[in-house]
Amino acid sequence: MSSHMEYSSYPRDCPTMDSLERQLICPICLEMFTKPVVILPCQHNLCRKCANDIFQVSREQWGSRGTTLGSAGRFRCPSCRHEVVLDRHGIYGLQRNLLVENIIDIYKQASARGPESEHPTCEEHEEEKINIYCVTCAVPTCSLCKVFGEHKECEVAPLSDIYARQKAELTDGIGALVAANDRIQAYIGSLQGTCKNIEENCKAQKQALCEKFDRMCAILEERRKIMLQRITYERDEKSQHLKSLSKACSDHIESSSKLVDTALQSMEEPQMAVFVQVKSRGTALLSLCIRTRRNVWCHFPPVNNTWPWAGLPGASGSSSPTHPEGTLWGKGVTEDGSIDPWL
Q1: Where does the B box-type domain start and stop, copy by copy (predicted)?
Q2: Secondary structure of 218-278 in HEC code, one letter for each residue
Q3: Is the dihedral of CA 286, 287, 289, 294 positive or negative?
Q4: Which of 113, 254, 287, 307 sits at a 20 to 30 Å CA gap from 126?
Q5: What is the largest CA-CA distance in the chain?
């Protein structure tokens, strides 16, 4: 750290110290003069080191022009630009300024010592120092105030005793505050630990919940596939069954049509004996056809509570044959033909 920054940090007892410090600043390094201090013919001061640095720079400029007889070199004062001609001793031929060096020593000692604290005085007796404490009024005062002033009827105590007692009380208060701060800090640590546990538990619960829902989704997906397969199987089975029934009905319709044609032909027979003979054979064929139709229609539910063969010769509409499975559609199929996998 520079000397200027070092000494400017010390406290000042009056503005004169600040003004004095400004006078002790080297114009080259802008810090407090470093001994030895040389004085120039123009009465300005420089650190010998700073003077040598500026002389070395000037000698390079004046070297090409030559020097005066008996001169070792020259340079200009950085403060007033006065030309300084050096003798054969160079910078070491300049005179030291011992007065400035002594002032620097005194300034450093004063800055290191710092300002002395002044003892407070009584407001009523300006030249009397405060040396006692009024216990009744709880204010510090002087001896004259106790003897002749407004505190002569009050209880007083030595200032040192009050100082020691109040300092002890303040020390105890500081200790209590520090202990309270320690307890609060420990409580804060406990709260932070609890918050950390809450975060960890929340993370674990979320993970467990996600795992459970994943398992449930897998079970539901598997069940969905099984139910879709069952619906497809029922569709194929029932469709095949209905196709076979449709083919059987078509075959019986064809047989019935042939029987109708035969019956119509017999109706045109003019001879009664032949007609009765043909009628007997036709009746036998009609009974066979009705039984065959009943075997087919038993697989279908009645329409408006009436079976398809009702009204035919030899057929009773009240009879109600049943399918082995109870209905045409069987288990898992509703009356409108839709498939319910839950049945």
Answers
A1: 117-159
A2: HHHHHHHHHHHHHHHHHHHHHHHHHHHHHHHHHHHHHHHHHHHHHHHHHHCCCCHHHHHHH
A3: positive
A4: 113
A5: 184
Q: Is the CB of residue 76 less than 8 Å from the CB of residue 46?
A: no
Structure tokens at 83: 């030309």
CA distance 45 to 179: 59
Compute the distance between CA of residue 189 and CA of residue 183 in angstroms, rounded to an integer. 10
Q: Where are the beta strands (DSSP E) in the chain?
A: 37-39, 45-47, 73-76, 83-86, 95-96, 132-134, 139-141, 156-158
Separation of alpha carbons 33 and 103, rounded Å: 10
**pTM greater than the 0.70 cutoff:** no
Q: How far apart are CA 233 and CA 42, in angstroms?
A: 122
Written as six digits, the tokens of 2 are 């520079």
Please count the CA atoms within 13 angstroms of the CA of 254 that sit on its side-chain side. Answer: 6
The torsion of the CA quartet 298, 304, 309, 314, rounded to 10 degrees, works out to: 110
CB 34 within 8 A of CB 26: yes
Task: Report the chain's terminal Cα–Cα distance, integer Å.
Answer: 96
Instruction: Write the pLDDT tens digit of every residue in 233-284.
Output: 999 999 999 999 889 888 888 888 888 888 787 777 777 777 777 666 666 6
Structure tokens at 119: 């003892």
Does the N-terminal peptide bond of residue 36 adopt cis geometry, omega within 30 degrees of 0?
yes
Amino acid code (one letter) for 94: L
Rg of the Cα atoms in the chain:
65
- Tell me the C-alpha distance between 252 and 196, whole Å: 84
Q: Report residue 161: phi and psi, to 5°.
A: -65, -45
Check the CA dihedral 250-254-260-264 and report its sign: positive
Half-sphere exposure of 318 toward its Cβ, with a 13 Å CA cutoff? Answer: 0
Q: What's the token pair of residue 183?
A: 């307890």
* Distance between CA atoms of residues 60 and 72, nearest Å: 13
Residue length of the chain: 343
- Output phi, psi for 115, to 5 deg: -70, 145
DSSP, collapsed to helix, strand or coil, labels residue 38 as strand
